[in-house]
Structure to design on (662 residues):
């Protein structure tokens, strides 16, 4: 599969510039700048914490001592995914003049939308770690099982591949059907609740449905983040294999799809 | 050496009916079993070759396929059929700052644009000074470009395109925007390009500029190459074409004026004045006239024409067996079209007042009145004819 992958590498300068452009524009347009991308999930954490910590009391039973810390881990990791997907929806539609006037490998646009969110996520991990250390969570980090942190890059890579693959579909589908953007919000909203971000799955998902539940690669990914960052454990291997296989498949399928409809996209914009 | 070779290139656009393509629309199309797309032939079987060092102008009316052609050569659009070969590096002079981002400064946009055209930061560092110098925007280069005027946009865009020094430069209708001083500067740079044996493809409506700059001109008409050759000859033909069309559709008023039409109003069935009608709706035309002296057996007539001047329909009071004995002084005559059977488009309505035997033309209004017609259904053509399908087994 040469072609655009190869060109993508050749044009990494452009990818870099587009990512910086996204970031600069995002942070220049508001006075709080980068702070917003931290403040937003932190405030969300606060809201969920306020609502659910009083409604549910089963946290401790499920082994969650610090619900706020549990939320921070899940929300930031989910936001990387959701942000990538919703930004990629407009990566062609929002760059009409660019796509119609200059030639460059089109795949660069959704890729740079996802990479922008990756940069954001990595920067926000600093805040996540600060909070976790402050809260002395997980207790396991001080002992040798802290090596589970070595899994983190792999996990981020899996999430990145999944987001990229989906972004190829979403960005081009949104050109062919402009209402994809609207449906996407609903789907992401549903996806959020199908993924154990605000609840521990052990508490909510019945035993016999778990196999089905973990066919959602994001469910595996979020649980893995939680087990590495919150519990300080290695995630069960199948929660790595499943999303790894799915995200590679999605990446390849998305790439092929984009290449196939590329010509139509330019005509339709 | 041939650097651009176009062989039998056609480009069809699939136009979705309605406004924007949506899932909802696609589902409706599927439920109603209608074809969602309509093909539009932007280019049909276009062939030509361009030698290294030539400056070729592409002219034609709006919608003749000029920009599509440029897009195909630039690699932006894929041709539906045919073969395109381009040798050497190509830079497109971006139309009014395509690829510029309003919130970023001129400086940041230079680097962004450079990387879009395929240049690394290092390569752009080398060119940066020359770009700023050429664009004469030193004072503004750190300002967000959204505060730039359109002239400044063009200057920056042009400066980037020429300083990256491509083998082939594609220019799409931009030079007209800058001020005269900058235009001259651009022309000098283009001449410099020509001297160094670079190839330029130039799409423009500015005919004088095309004549001055180009060594050859291609005239496109509705997606076909109508003519190709020396600028003077091709431009003469093009000017004649445009003039003929304008001539045909020029609003005119003429006649002996023994009696004349003082005004026309287009009304809906409720009596409300309207400029836009829907296919199938009734249209009422209220023609006011003034006959200073008595005129015996006058005939009022109308005709409907398309945008190219073609006559679709015409009738008058005589043909409709509505004899008028005489008119004198002011008055109004009303014509009702029960069902407007025109499809989507803009149509001219011409009015006439003449004698029974056409010998005396009292008054004509040609191409002075126009109405828009909207069609809510997905039908093709100009005209709806009452019809019925029947399957015989």
């Amino acid at each position: 599969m040469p072609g655009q992958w190869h060109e993508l590498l050749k044009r990494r300068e452009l990818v870099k510039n587009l990512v910086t452009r996204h970031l600069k524009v995002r942070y220049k347009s508001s006075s709080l700048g980068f702070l917003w991308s931290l403040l937003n999930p932190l405030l969300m954490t606060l809201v969920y914490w306020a609502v659910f910590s009083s409604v549910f009391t089963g946290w401790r039973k499920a082994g969650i001592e610090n619900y706020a810390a549990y939320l921070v881990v899940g929300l930031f990791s989910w936001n990387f995914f959701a942000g990538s997907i919703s930004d990629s929806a407009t990566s062609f539609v929002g760059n009409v003049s660019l796509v119609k006037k200059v030639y460059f490998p089109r795949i660069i646009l959704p890729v740079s939308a996802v990479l922008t969110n990756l940069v954001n996520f990595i920067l926000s991990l600093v805040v996540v770690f600060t909070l976790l250390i402050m809260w002395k969570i997980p207790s396991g980090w001080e002992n040798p099982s802290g090596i589970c942190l070595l899994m983190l890059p792999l996990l981020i890579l899996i999430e990145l591949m999944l987001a990229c693959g989906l972004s190829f579909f979403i960005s081009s589908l949104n050109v062919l059907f402009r209402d994809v953007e609207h449906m996407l919000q609903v789907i992401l909203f549903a996806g959020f609740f199908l993924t154990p971000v605000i609840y521990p799955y052990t508490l909510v998902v019945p035993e016999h449905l778990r196999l089905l539940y973990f066919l959602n690669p994001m469910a595996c990914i979020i649980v893995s983040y939680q087990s590495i960052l919150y519990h300080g454990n290695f995630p069960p291997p199948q929660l790595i294999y499943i999303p790894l296989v799915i995200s590679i498949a999605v990446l390849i399928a998305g790439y092929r799809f984009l290449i196939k409809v590329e010509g139509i996209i330019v005509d339709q914009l | 050496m041939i650097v651009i070779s176009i062989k039998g290139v056609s480009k069809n656009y699939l136009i979705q009916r309605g406004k924007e393509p949506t899932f909802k629309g696609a589902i409706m199309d599927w439920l109603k079993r209608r074809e969602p797309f309509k093909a539009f032939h932007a280019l049909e079987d276009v062939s030509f070759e361009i030698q290294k060092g030539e400056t070729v102008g592409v002219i034609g009316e709006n919608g003749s396929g000029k920009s599509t052609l440029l897009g195909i050569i630039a690699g932006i659009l894929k041709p539906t059929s045919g073969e395109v070969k381009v040798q050497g590096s190509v830079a497109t002079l971006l139309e009014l700052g395509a690829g510029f981002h309003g919130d970023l400064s001129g400086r940041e946009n230079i680097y962004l644009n450079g990387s879009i055209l395929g240049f690394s930061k290092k390569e752009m560092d080398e060119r940066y000074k020359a770009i700023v110098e050429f664009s004469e925007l030193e004072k503004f280069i750190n300002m967000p470009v959204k505060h730039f005027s359109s002239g400044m946009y063009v200057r920056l865009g042009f400066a980037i395109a020429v300083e990256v020094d491509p083998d082939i430069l594609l220019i799409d209708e931009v030079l007209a925007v800058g001020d005269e001083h900058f235009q001259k500067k651009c022309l000098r740079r283009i001449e410099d390009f020509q001297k160094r044996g670079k190839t330029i493809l130039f799409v423009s409506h500015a005919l004088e500029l095309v004549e001055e700059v180009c060594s050859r001109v291609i005239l496109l008409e509705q997606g076909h190459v109508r003519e190709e050759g020396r600028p003077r000859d091709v431009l003469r033909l093009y000017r004649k074409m445009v003039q003929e069309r304008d001539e045909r559709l020029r609003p005119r008023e003429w006649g002996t004026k023994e009696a004349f039409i003082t005004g026309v109003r287009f009304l809906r069935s409720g009596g409300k004045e309207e400029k836009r009608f829907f296919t199938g709706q009734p249209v009422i035309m209220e023609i006011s006239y003034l006959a200073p002296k008595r005129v015996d057996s006058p005939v009022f007539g109308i005709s409907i024409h398309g945008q190219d001047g073609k006559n679709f329909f015409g009738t008058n009071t005589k043909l409709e067996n509505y004899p008028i004995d005489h008119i004198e002084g002011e008055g109004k005559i009303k014509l009702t079209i029960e069902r407007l059977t025109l499809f989507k488009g803009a149509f001219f309505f011409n009015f006439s007042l003449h004698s029974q035997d056409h010998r005396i033309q009292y008054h004509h209004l040609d191409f002075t009145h126009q109405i828009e017609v909207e069609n809510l259904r997905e039908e093709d053509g100009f005209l709806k004819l009452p019809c019925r399908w029947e399957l015989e087994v």
Q: What stands out?
A: The CA atoms of residues 252 and 341 of chain B lie 26 Å apart.
